[in-house]
Design brief:
Blueprint (H helix, E strand, L loop, with lengths): L10 E4 H5 L2 H20 L12 H16 L3 E8 L2 E10 L9 E8 L8 H15 L4 E7 L3 H9 L3 E12 L2 E11 L5
Helix pairs in contact: 2-3
């Protein structure tokens, strides 16, 4: 993928690239809110039962961007013709004993572009950012019914290391919580 957000092919940019474009930076919170709220409204497993408010998404982005500036995270954003279509981030663990590791906390792709490789491109960029930052183990968790995400993570080298049966409650429905990891210590 190129780094030009004006093409018709989805491109993945880092937080600094987006910040350097006043138009993209100015629309980031609103665009991220649109994606996250629409996905949650459709039943996506993103940590909310009800769609997040614009304020919640703005606060989340502020938190992630502060971590990125401190070298404790990575935010990647996917654009199609200068329209945000996906985002993902990881954050370094805060405890001193866990500092060499990070958690891929959120990956969200606009439903209109599912199947176009946006999630794969975002995840691959986040993996490379983690490797470059010296992360030893990148972890994530996913809801057990999210077969597409679990397949994507396995295809990129993540391995399952645990599962909590029926841990996630959405109304009367229950889902497994699946824990996965990518261990960079075992890779050349």
């Amino acid at each position: 993928m190129t780094s030009d957000p004006t093409t018709t092919t989805p491109v993945v940019l880092d937080a600094a690239q987006v910040a350097s474009d006043p138009e993209l930076a100015g629309r980031l919170a609103e665009s991220a809110h649109r994606i996250l709220a629409d996905l949650v409204r459709g039943g996506a497993a993103l940590g909310w039962v009800e769609p997040p408010s614009p304020g919640e998404v703005g606060d989340l982005l502020d938190h992630v961007l502060a971590a990125v500036r401190a070298g404790d995270g990575s935010l990647r954003l996917a654009y199609l013709d200068r329209r945000l279509v996906g985002l993902g981030y990881w954050l370094r663990y805060a405890r001193p004993t866990h500092r060499p590791n990070a958690d891929l906390e959120k990956l969200a792709v606009d439903a209109a572009v599912h199947g176009r490789g946006v999630g794969r491109a975002l995840t691959a960029a986040l993996i490379e950012d983690a490797r470059a930052a010296g992360i030893e183990v990148l972890t994530l968790d996913a809801r057990g019914d999210n077969a597409n995400a679990l397949h994507l993570y396995r295809s990129l080298g993540f391995t399952e290391y645990g599962r909590l049966p029926d841990f996630v409650a959405v109304g009367e429905r229950r889902y497994d919580k699946v824990f996965s990891m990518l261990d960079f210590r075992r890779r050349p």
